[in-house]
Each structure stands twice: as C-alpha cells, then as structure tokens.
C-alpha cells in the first residue's frame, strides 16, 4: 500500500489538503476476461504530452482521511471532491499504430518519487 499526499503544483493551490489517496494493488480474478492493450492513447497534463499503449490494469487509488492517531478511514463522500482512480500500466510509444511518429514533449519540472508498497491487494 502507498499513500498519495496532496501537493501544490506550480502554485495552483491544493483543492483538498485533508483528503489523501491510498494506493491498493489489484489482482485480476482467476478465469476472468484478459485485458486487451489499447494503443495510441494521448496523455496531456502539466508534466507534458505523450502517446502510450495502455498495457494492463494497475492499482486503485481511494480517498482516505489521514490521522496519525487512528487507522486510515474513508472520508464521507459529501465532505470532499477527490475521486477514486483506477490506474493502468502504460508503455510510451515512439510510433503510432499507423507508423507515424508519436510526438511527445515533457517538462522537467514534474518529477515523482515512487511510493513504497505493501503486500495488500484487492481482487477485482
């Protein structure tokens, strides 16, 4: 498990400084439908512009209240505007499926540190 903390990126402010995101690893059910990769997905955000292939489902980020004195609990839905996030493993593409160059840009100002993990996993 990992914990995502709210941050103020490029002085944009923090929308909800109290609600954090807890990262749970997910496992596919045995005998379930196999995920088919999705190529040529363009991602644009404050860190840049990139074309990726969505390779497989990854983790689930769930809103969490953080209080060091008590176990982490989910906040009441009406008290925050933070969504659950289903994360996916991706592979950056150099070319699109049609052979054209995948134009990308990146901004060095965006850096991240990989979260630490535990063995806890949810089955989907």
Please specify the SSE layout and strand pairing.
Layout: E1 2-4, E2 19-27, E3 38-45, E4 48-65, E5 85-92, E6 105-106, E7 121-123
Parallel strand pairs: 2-7
Antiparallel strand pairs: 1-2, 2-4, 3-4, 4-5, 4-6
Structure summary:
This protein has 124 residues and is an all-beta fold.
Structure explained in plain terms:
The structure is a single chain. The chain has one domain (2-28, 37-108). The two termini are 16 Å apart. The protein has no helices and 7 strands. With 124 residues, the chain is mainly beta. Strands 1, 2, 3, 4, 5, 6 and 7 form a 7-stranded mixed beta sheet that branches.
Provide the descriptors you would attach to this structure in a database record.
124 residues, mainly beta, 7-stranded mixed beta sheet, disordered C terminus
Task: Return Rg in Å.
Answer: 17 Å
Largest sheet: 7 strands, mixed
Number of helices: 0
Shape: flat
What fraction, in percent, of the residue positions are helical?
A: under 10%
DSSP strand tally: 7
Instruction: Identify low-pLDDT runs.
Output: 111-124
State which percent range the strand residues make up: 35-45%
Order of helices and strands: EEEEEEE
């Amino acid at each position: 498990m990992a914990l995502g903390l709210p941050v103020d990126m490029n002085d944009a402010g923090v929308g909800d400084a109290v609600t954090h995101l807890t990262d749970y690893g997910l496992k596919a059910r045995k005998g379930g439908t196999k995920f088919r990769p999705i190529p040529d997905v363009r991602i644009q955000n404050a860190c840049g512009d990139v074309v990726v292939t969505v390779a497989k489902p990854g983790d689930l980020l769930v809103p969490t209240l953080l209080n060091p004195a008590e176990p982490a609990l989910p906040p009441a839905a009406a008290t925050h505007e933070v969504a659950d996030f289903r994360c996916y493993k991706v592979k950056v593409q150099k070319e699109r499926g049609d052979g054209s160059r995948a134009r990308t840009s990146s901004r060095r100002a965006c850096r991240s540190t990989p979260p630490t993990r535990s063995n806890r996993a949810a089955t989907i």
